[in-house]
C-alpha cells in the first residue's frame, strides 16, 4: 500500500458513488452504458474470486466486497428496476461487448504470470477492465451531450487508473522485485482510451460550459 494506490482506490470508489447517486436521485440511467456496467461486474467477480478464501487485510477484503456489491447493484438497477430501466437507451448502447470478453479471455490464456485458474482469472480481469469503458465512451459520443454526473463518473474512473500508474511507477523504484507488468501495460492502454474524453472534459471545465463530445 502507498499513497498513490490509496488515492486510486478512493477515486475509484468516488466514481461508483457518483454513479449510484445519479441513478438514485434522478431515477434514471440515461447516458450510462449497461454493457460497460455488466463488464465491470464480470471484472470484479473474476478478480476477487478469492475474497472468501484469501485474507490479506480488512481494508483489502472490504474494498473487494464493496466493488462486487456495487457493480451488481448497478447492473440490477439498470436491468430490473421498473423506473430506472425505462431510461436505458438500447439504441445508443450497441457496442459488441462480447468480443471484448472473448478477446480478453483468449489473451489471458496466452499471456499470464502463471498458468493457474486464479492467475488466468486475474489476467482476464485486468485485460477486460482495460477495455470495459469502450461501450460507455461510444455511447457518450453518439449521444453528444453529457450530463454533469455522468461526466464526473467517467472522469473519476479515468483518474483512478492514472493514480494506479503512479502507484506502479512508485513500486518499480521501491520494490526489489516488481512483477505486475500485465497490469502496468493494460493500465496504460486503459488510460489512453480516456485521453479524448479528458481533453473535452478539460475544455468544458475551462470554459465553464456543458460537456459535449464530438459524434
Q: Work out the helicity level.
A: over 70%
Shape: globular
- Output mean pLDDT: 91
Strand content: under 5%
- Biggest sheet features: none
- Structural class of the secondary structure composition? mainly alpha
Q: Total number of helical segments?
A: 10
Write down how many β-strands occur, each being a DSSP E stretch of 2 or more residues.
Answer: 0
Unreliable stretches covering 5 or more consecutive residues: none
Rg calculated over all Cα atoms: 17 Å
The SSE order reads: HHHHHHHHHH
> N-to-C terminal Cα separation, in Å?
40 Å
In brief:
With 215 residues, the chain is an all-alpha fold. It has 10 helices and no strands.
Chart the SSEs and their pairings.
Blueprint: H1 3-26, H2 34-47, H3 58-80, H4 82-86, H5 97-110, H6 117-131, H7 134-143, H8 148-174, H9 181-193, H10 195-206
Structural write-up:
With 215 residues, this protein is an all-alpha fold. Helix content is 73%, strand content 0%. It has ten helices and no strands. The protein has helices spanning 3-26, 34-47, 58-80, 82-86, 97-110, 117-131, 134-143, 148-174, 181-193, 195-206. Helix 8 runs antiparallel to helix 9. The longest helix is centred in the C-terminal third of the chain and has 27 residues, at 148-174. The protein is globular, with a radius of gyration of 17 Å. The termini are far apart. 33% of the residues are buried. The model has no long low-confidence stretch (mean pLDDT 91).
Amino acid at each position: 500500500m502507498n499513497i498513490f494506490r490509496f488515492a486510486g482506490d478512493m477515486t475509484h470508489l468516488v466514481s461508483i458513488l457518483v454513479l449510484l447517486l445519479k441513478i438514485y436521485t434522478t431515477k434514471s440511467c440515461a447516458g450510462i452504458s449497461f454493457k460497460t456496467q455488466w463488464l465491470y461486474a464480470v471484472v470484479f467477480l473474476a478478480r476477487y474470486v478469492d475474497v472468501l478464501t484469501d485474507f490479506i487485510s480488512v481494508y483489502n477484503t472490504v474494498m473487494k466486497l464493496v466493488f462486487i456489491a456495487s457493480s451488481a447493484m448497478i447492473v440490477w438497477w439498470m436491468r430490473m428496476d421498473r423506473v430506472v430501466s425505462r431510461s436505458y437507451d438500447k439504441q445508443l448502447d450497441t457496442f459488441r461487448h462480447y468480443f471484448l470478453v472473448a478477446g480478453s479471455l483468449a489473451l489471458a490464456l496466452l499471456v499470464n504470470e502463471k498458468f493457474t485458474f486464479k492467475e488466468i482469472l486475474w489476467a482476464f480481469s485486468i485485460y477486460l477492465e482495460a477495455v470495459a469503458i469502450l461501450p460507455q465512451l461510444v455511447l457518450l459520443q453518439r449521444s453528444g451531450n453529457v450530463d454533469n454526473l455522468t461526466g464526473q463518473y467517467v472522469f473519476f474512473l479515468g483518474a483512478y487508473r492514472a493514480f494506479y500508474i503512479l502507484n506502479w511507477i512508485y513500486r518499480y523504484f521501491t520494490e526489489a522485485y516488481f512483477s505486475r507488468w500485465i497490469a502496468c501495460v493494460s493500465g496504460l492502454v486503459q488510460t489512453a482510451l480516456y485521453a479524448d474524453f479528458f481533453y473535452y472534459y478539460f475544455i468544458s471545465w475551462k470554459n465553464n460550459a456543458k460537456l459535449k463530445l464530438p459524434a
